[in-house]
Structure formats: structure tokens, C-alpha cells
What we know:
Layout: E1 7-10, H1 16-28, H2 42-54, E2 61-68, E3 74-81, E4 86-90, H3 99-110, H4 125-133
Amino acid sequence: MNLSEIKITLVTESDIPILYEMLKEFREIPNACIHERPLPPFEDSKKYVMKYLYDNENHELDKWYVVIDAQGKTVGAVNITNKNYVNYQILLPFQGMGIGTRAVELLMQENPRNRYFIAVHQKNEKSQNLSKKLGFKPKGLIFEKIMD
Length: 148
């Protein structure tokens, strides 16, 4: 795969179904993210995207993109929060090809900041390696206490 053909395009309403499918896949992967929230219903997920699209100043995400391959297929998503946290997800069949690295590079080119953060689960070696490949350095630990 030619990584120079990977592009990112801003999320639109038509991306909502694929974003939800990605979220479902993501939630099924052990240690994929630092929180373990259950999968929200589709309608709640749709409201989240719609708020991003039409009430962005009150949304946690600053910019949100889908990742497109050379054939025009959506293969992932990347976003950056208002607090400079970078989030990414590449669909399983497309992982390990450099697409995630390229997508985050494009995100940072489109959204220049002085500092970026990536929060990675301590057992997610793939994501840790991607972060290091991009020049991110370990900063600290996040501790969690869940109240039942």
C-alpha cells in the first residue's frame, strides 16, 4: 500500500454508520482504550456525532476525520480534542500497514499545536509503538477508581 495515497477528510453525517461500526469493533478489542465504557446505543452515538457537526464549540472534539485509502474506502478515523489529545482507530484488516501512523501525521499537519497527547492503555503495545514511532514520549500514569 502506498501510504502517500492515504488521506483524511472531515467527518460528515454520512459517516455516522461507519463510525458506529468502528466503535463497535474498537470496544471488542481488549485493552484498545484506557476506559471500558459499554457500547452506547446507535442513537446516542449519532447524537454525539451530530453535536460535533452542528454544535462544535460545545463539543470535546476539535476536529474529527475519517481515514480514506487509495480506493476511497474508509479504513479508520482520527480526531483531536480541544485539549490536544489525539485519538485514532484503524479497522482491524488495515492495521499493521502504517496507516495509523500516516493518519496521525496528517492530523497533526492539519492541526498544528505546540503539544499533543496520546492516552494509551498500559497493555496496548501496538498503540504504544505507534506513539513512539511518531515521537511521543511517556509522560505519566493515569489511575482510575470505579465507584459501584
